[in-house]
Automatic annotation (TrEMBL):
Pfam family, one: RsgA_N
EngC GTPase domain residues: 71-217
Protein name: Small ribosomal subunit biogenesis GTPase RsgA
Entry's family note: Belongs to the TRAFAC class YlqF/YawG GTPase family. RsgA subfamily.
Protein's organism: Anaerococcus martiniensis
Amino acid sequence: MNGKIIKAQKELYYVESGNKIYMAKARGNFRKKGIKPLVGDDVKIDIQDEDNAYITEILERKNTIKRPNISNVDQMLVFITINDPPLNLYNLDKYLSMCEYEHIDVVIVLSKKDLATSEKINNLTDIYQKIGYTILTLDNYNDFPEDIIKEILQGKTSAVSGASGVGKSTFLNNLVENNLEIGEISEKLKRGKNTTRHTEIFTIENDTYIFDTPGFDSFDFDFLEDENNLNYTFREMADSNCRFNNCNHINEPDCEVKEKLANGQIAKSRYENYLMIFNELKDRRENKW
Ligand SMILES: Nc1nc2c(ncn2[C@@H]2O[C@H](COP(=O)(O)OP(=O)(O)OP(=O)(O)O)[C@@H](O)[C@H]2O)c(=O)[nH]1
Ligand SMILES: [Zn+2]
C-alpha cells in the first residue's frame, strides 16, 4: 500500500493511506543508507493490523526543506505584511529566489491588509503580479477569502513561511479550526495533540495538504553556491536577450536587464536585492564560509 507520512514523533510515523491512519515504524533498507523518513514523504507500507504498519520504502522526493525538515512541498505560501512587522523586500526576494531554485510554486500572502493603505498594497501587488506571482491579500479577522484559498490549495501540498508575527498561525488556525471543512483524519489527529512541537500535515481534502509548521523563518542561502546561477531564479531576468547568454546583468555590455531597469520595466527594488544577494553569494564562495 502507498501512503503519506503526515506526522512524526521520534521513531513513530503516522501514515495516511486509503483514508486511514496507521502508526508505523521504519523497516525498509533505506535505513541502512542512513535515510530517515520525513513528514511529507510518500511511502510504501506493510499493514500489520487496523492501526499498525511498517514503512518499507520511501518514494522519490520532489524536494526537501531543512527547517523544518519536511519533504515534497509543491507550494509555498510566503507571508508578508506592510506594517507590523514592517515589509522587508530583501527577505521576500530571497525567499522567492530559493523557491524558484527548489521548483516550489509560490503564492505571496499579504496579510494584515487592515493595517496598510491601499496605495502601498497596490504598489507592491503591481511589482509582483507583473512578473507572474499570485498575490493574495487578506485580513485574518475580517476578510478571509475562504473560496480563493481553497482553490489555491487544491490538489497540492503547501507550506507557509514568513517572518515572525506576520499572521501565519492565525491563518492556519482559521483554516484548520474554523473555516475549511477538514477531513476526518485531521480531526482524529487533533484529539491526540499534545504540547510538544512536532511537524504535522493537515489534510484539507483528498490530495490537498498543508504543513502546520512554518518553513524557514531565517534560512541562509546554502542551497545556491554559485552566484552565476542567481539570474535564473529571478523571473524577470531569466530569459533575457543580453549580448552574452550567461550575462549576470551587472557590468556586461548590451544587457537587456539593465535597459529594462532604466525604462522602469524591471523594478528597482528587485534589481537591488538581486545585486545584494549576488554579492553575498560571491563573498561566501570566495571566502568559503
Ligand atoms: N490586524 C491584524 N492582526 C493580525 C492579522 N493576522 C494576525 N494578526 C495578529 O498578529 C499577531 C501575530 O500573529 P500570528 O498568527 O501569531 O503570527 P505568526 O506569523 O504565526 O508569528 P510566529 O508564530 O511568531 O511566527 C497576533 O497578535 C495576531 O492576532 C490580521 O490579518 N490583521
Ligand atoms: Zn544582462
